[in-house]
Each structure stands twice: as structure tokens, then as C-alpha cells.
Amino acid sequence: MSALLLAITGWEPDTWLERFRAEAKGREVRLWPEIGDPAEIDYACVWKQPAGLLATLPKLKAVFSLGAGVDHLLSDRVLPDVPIVRIVDPDLTRRMTGYVALHVLLHQRKMKLYERERSARKWHDHYEAAPDQLRVGILGAGVLGTAAVPVLRQLGFQVAGFSRSPKTIPGIEIFSGEAGMNAFLGRSDILVCLLPLTAETRGMLSYDLFRRLARGGALGGPVLINAGRGGLQVEADILRALADGTLIGASLDVFEHEPPPQTNPFWDHPKVYTTPHNAASSDPKLLTKNVMNQIERFERGLALEHVVDRRLGY
Ligand code: NDP
Ligand code: OXD
Question: Residue 275's CB: how many other CB atoms inside 10 A?
Fold first, then answer.
């Protein structure tokens, strides 16, 4: 018997179960907590799985995160020593590109101001900085960050990126290292964060970092867009920076606590757009095939793709 286990919390599991059953070609698909005999499970596909669960599966060959991020998975202290694979998929990537372009434009086009004026029935065309006057900085120039670059450039924005290791991406400057970080932040009017949450990146979006962003840019001050993880941001620092003008606006798709408590000030902050961690949602109708293709490759003796480096945490 060879079975695939789905262990999903925080998302509705029914469509995943239905899709995996349709795609799994004869393999039994089980949904946690109905795991049956643990020794029959070869593969686990997870989103925020219960801690300790994976270590109880003695024949496990690989674990698949049902999203691009794996912080939820790696926070389990007792993981078995098998490959951990994350989602890299054109659908998810396009969704994130759409989110990034949308939010960069919302800030460039002063949509908060127009929303306020609309509710006061005020008709006034304000000066808007042209895209080519604005410098977007992609903090985390990985799969998702890099994909947004050509779209932003097509819209006219000046774009640069930052990655942990030095790399080249044709047509844009990629910064890395501590000196690179200062230069990168100092040329960013709109900071788009698409970092993974790791021991190194936790709390990186702090007041100290916001202070190092570009001053005197065409928007009148810098803007933060975070679609990485809530643990990257220090929310008290974002509030302080918005209050004293260190930031003039923000778009937050992710939060320190999700869902944020009803008392969280971002719910109705006049300078902030919030969304419920859906910048790039995983679509079970498309991503189940992605995971099954990987399993087929693996069973044909080919290497799994997009395997996570546990030491780096992403
Ligand atoms: P990648 O692994 O492809 O890219 C991560 C990027 O971050 C890389 O450029 C990497 O550098 C850089 N990085 C990692 N650690 C550091 C560090 N300490 N300092 C500076 N840069 C660093 O991931 P993806 O692009 O696929 O996804 C990024 C994140 O987006 C996910 O981890 C997840 O948290 C989030 N996400 C959010 C979603 C949402 O709906 N809000 C949906 C999907 C993902 P290097 O290139 O050198 O490795
Ligand atoms: C992901 C997410 O990591 O949806 O894919 O957050």
C-alpha cells in the first residue's frame, strides 16, 4: 500500500482532497487526522501541519509544501530527514506579480487620497509622479520578486532588487550584502518585500530599515509593500514610521498574527491597504498537478525540483 497524506490547517482542505484524489492515479489519498497506518504513507503534502506529525511517518520519502513559503513547515522541531519541496508554479507567480503591480500603482496613483476625496464628493485631479521618477526596490529577488520586474519596468518604474547572495538579472541591478543593503534602501521609494521568513529575516522590516529608505523621492516619502510574511515586519515600527512620516504609506498582505486581532490598528489605518494573506493564493485546481508531476519525476529516478535548503530555511 502506498498512500499520500494531506495535512492542512488554516485552509479549507476539501478541494485539495478532491483534486489529489482525482490526480493521484490509483494512489490512496488520506486527509489528516484520518491517517490510517502511518507506515503506508510515502508522501505528505502540507500547509501548517500539526507539529510532530511528519516524524511519526516511518516510510516518508518527501514532503511537499502546498505554498511557496516553508516557514510553517520548518517551524516543526522534529522533521524527518527527507527532502522538503516548495511550490514554484506559473499560476502562483502570476498572482504575485499582479499583487505587486496593483499595489505599486495604488501608491503611485494616490488611490488613498482619491478614496477619501470620493467619499467627500470632491473632484480634483492631483499631480502624480510619473512611474519613471519612482524607484521600486524588490527585497527578495527570488522566483516571485524577479517575475514582477519586467511588468514593473513595462509600466515605466525604475526597478532594482536585493538578494542574499550576489546574482545577476539582465537589465536590473541586484544588490546584496550589508553595504549593498544601504545602497539598495537608499535608492528605494517603494520597497516591495518578498523575503522568506527565516532566522535571518525575522523582524527585518523595522524602523531602522525604514529610516534608510530614499528621502526626497517623487512620492514625498517611502512606501512599504509586504507580501512575504508577517514575521518579517515589526508592526509597532510600521505604525511609528507612518505616524512620523518615515513611511508615507503601506500595503500589508501578511501580519504578525493572522488573522490580526480586531484591535489591530491596521484594520482601519488611513495610510494602509490590507489584504488577508492572499497576494498569491495556492489554487488546488492547478497546484495539485504541480505536486503530482514532482512525485512522478521522483519515482522515475529524476531529481525533485525546488527542494528547500533547510540550513538556510527557504
Ligand atoms: P525564493 O526562495 O525564490 O526567493 C527568496 C529571495 O529572498 C531570494 O532572492 C533570496 O536570496 C532572498 N533572501 C533570502 N534570505 C535573505 C536574507 N537573509 N537577506 C536578503 N535576501 C534574502 O522565494 P519565492 O520568491 O518563491 O517566495 C518568497 C516568499 O514569498 C515566500 O518564502 C513566502 O514567504 C512569500 N509568499 C507569500 C505569499 C502571499 O500570498 N503573501 C504567496 C507566496 C509566497 P537568494 O536569491 O540569494 O537565495
Ligand atoms: C505561500 C503563501 O507561501 O500562500 O505560498 O503564503
Answer: 14
